[in-house]
Amino acid sequence: MTKAKYKRILLKLSGEALAGNHDQTIDQSVLEFFAKEILSIHELGVQVAVVVGGGNIWRGGQKAVALGMDPAQSHYMGMLATIINALALQDALERHGMHTRTMTAIKMDEVTEPYLRRRATRHLEKQRVIILAAGTGNPYFSTDSAAALRAAEVHAEIILMAKNGVDGVYTADPRRFADATRYDHLTYMDALNQGLAVMDSTALTFCMDNHIPIVVFNPNQPGTIRRIVTGEHVGTLVSNERETHG
Questions:
Q1: What is the mean pLDDT of residues 142-157?
Q2: CATH architecture of the domain with residue range 8-239
Q3: Fewer CB atoms near the end CB (10 Å): N or C, the chain?
Q4: Model confidence, pTM
Q5: Contact 191, 8 (CB under 8 A)
């Protein structure tokens, strides 16, 4: 029987990943796909926390600059966008028989639970998938930062960083430069010094300080999440030099 290498993981899904071909805000077939991917590791006994972005609905920083909005106001709008995505994902997961909880950093008692670290950990121990939305609850902090913070708080062993359409970290954008090569392993400091697109620098520094490894991978390939969880080398590992992938 296949065994999982990790007992508890945090999966970071961007809002863009839920949009599919970008012709619609949320693609129902994409939700179905991710529900099956998460189910495949849930069945192994893996405890799963998911942090969702909101870029398919609203991108706080970019919109604020373009429209002349107050940046904090725009960031709060982005947090609300992540809650919409979280509820959509929760519905898909529950249709596949998983027990879930959506927890938000902004109180919205009628539709979600407030995020409380001890309660989140208890849900995981009870094999409930938790979906964490509204970022950290603070403007100016990205959902990458939320993923890093929540991973530390719930003691996730690894962050699975889903990058839409890219199967790891490259020396340059592989969609623009044919000679770009993929890294199998990077240290946090290498990624920071080279400005590589792993996650934003605040989040990456937090992961380095708290020794949280990150695997950057393409989530659109079926079975990839299960392969990572069972210890197979997939994508790019970002960690301390002492740590190894697979």
A1: 97
A2: 3-Layer(aba) Sandwich (3.40)
A3: N
A4: 0.92
A5: no
The predicted pLDDT at position 198 comes to 85
CA–CA dist 175, 141 (Å, integer): 28
Cβ-count burial of 197 within 10 angstroms (0-12 exposed, 13-18 middle, 19+ buried)? middle
Pairing label, strands 236-239, 113-114? unpaired
Q: Is residue 53 within 8 Å of residue 143, measured between CB atoms?
A: yes
Three-class DSSP category at 152: helix
Q: Per residue in 146-179, is it b (16+ CB within 10 Å) or e — as a string?
A: bbbbbbbbbebebbbbbbbebbbbbeeebeeeee
Q: What is the pLDDT of residue 149?
A: 98
162 strand-pairing partners: 217
What pLDDT is attached to residue 20?
A: 78
Q: How far is CA 189 from CA 12, 193, 194, 201, 206, in A?
A: 21, 6, 8, 10, 12
CB 161 within 8 A of CB 199: yes
CA angle 218, 184, 176 (to 5 degrees): 60
Is pLDDT at 244 greater than 60 in this prediction?
A: no
**For the chain, domain boundaries:** 8-239
Nearby residues of 112 by Cβ (< 8 Å), 6 or more positions away:
83, 86, 87, 102, 103, 104, 133
